[in-house]
User: What shape does this take?
Amino acid sequence: MRTHKQTTLKGPATLSGIGVHSGNPAEITIRPAPANHGIAFLRTGTTHGNDRLIKAHHALVSATELCTVLGDVETGAVATVEHLMSALYGLGVDNALIEIDGPEMPILDGSALPFVQAIDQIGIATCDTPRRWLKILRHVRIEAGTSFAELRPIDRGFRLDVEIDFESPVIGRSRKAMDLSPATYRREIAGARTFGMMRDVERYWKAGFALGASLENTVAVGETAVVNPEGLRFQDEFVRHKILDAIGDLALAGLPIQGAYRSYCGGHRMNVGVLSALFADRANYAVVEAQGSRRETVLSELGVGLGIAAFAGDL
Assistant: This one.
């Protein structure tokens, strides 16, 4: 089990790059935030000149095609939030404010590793406030054709089991299961890069996507092999990146999850959709709080439905 106290960063961390879909430059600064703040994005540089604070919460997801978008495009949104959200969740950071000067997060190398390295360099600070978890109480499942995503109760921790199945012989069918911890996240997930099919590039460009994609930030999949000269970082990098994305999307629950997640041929839409199904019925979950010393930590149930109520004022 992770620390029973909430966490934030010891100081600010700034990163810059280009958006993988827009191709535009972007700079972010991840700043410390007080206990019970959660994760939020401060969007600057909007067309109307007004900064906008956007809570990292599934109820504010406005699009899930090829990436996860928070907020309203007309008044200020942030796209491709999943990699940073994944890094924060994977390392156990509960509270942070992310300032961003444009509509899309920088893609960096296509993985969460640069975010992890920046956070590790700054360090993680412990708040003097108990951590809360979102405890899954009942099985929740959504389906779309043969694809599905589900959340199930387990005694402790957060377990992910993700399976992909692509027609491409380069990717094929792959499955990976793991219990999430900061150590396993750093070692097994953080470095897995986003990927795309070479045959889809022109279609993406016409639709306004992947304008900033390159071999420096994307694993390009050809008909018979990976195009990147360095090859893959992991033999199963494709499914590992899908786990990375799932962690980032599920972080939009607003609290760390105590439960098991399983998906088959899922994606951003399914990841966010299962959260919507979870919160649709208050009997599906409860919020529990860590109490006691570090060695004798127990989880005390605060009540059913508090996961939504906790965000009402912010939204």
Summary: The two ends are 30 Å apart (CA to CA).
